[in-house]
């Protein structure tokens, strides 16, 4: 089976080449919206976009907190707490 992907180059054996085709077809278990704890009416792409937005907001807050630290603070405690 030949995949239609043109921008993906697989190195090593982490993913078998036929697995990319199965991913594109949606035939691998665990790719349905319900598999992520969402309802059938939810759109997975919307949930991914929302989660990515949350992650970026947390990262921005973390960066602001880092800027407020003293130069000799390793940020270990702050990193654990955030």
> How would a textbook summarize the main sheet?
none
Order of helices and strands: HHH
Low-confidence stretches: none
Strand content: under 5%
Rg over CA atoms, rounded to whole Å, is: 20 Å
Number of helices: 3
N-to-C CA distance? 46 Å
Kindly name the structural category: mainly alpha
Work out the number of β strands.
0
Shape: elongated
What is the mean pLDDT? 85
The number of domains = 2
Helix content: 40-55%
SSE layout and pairing:
Layout: H1 17-25, H2 44-67, H3 76-81
Structure in words:
Helix content is 48%, strand content 0%. The protein is mainly alpha-helical. It folds into two domains: 1-31, no CATH class; 40-81. It is elongated, with a radius of gyration of 20 Å.
Summarize the structure.
With about 80 residues, the protein is an all-alpha fold.
Provide keyphrases for this structure:
82 residues; mainly alpha; 2 domains; 0% strand
């Amino acid at each position: 089976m030949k995949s239609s992907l043109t921008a993906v180059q697989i190195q090593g054996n982490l993913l078998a080449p036929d697995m990319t085709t199965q991913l594109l077809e949606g035939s691998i278990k665990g790719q349905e919206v319900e598999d992520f704890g969402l309802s059938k009416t939810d759109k997975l792409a919307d949930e991914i976009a929302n989660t990515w937005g949350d992650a970026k907001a947390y990262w921005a807050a973390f960066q602001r907190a880092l800027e407020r630290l003293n130069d000799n603070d390793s940020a270990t405690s702050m990193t654990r707490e955030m």
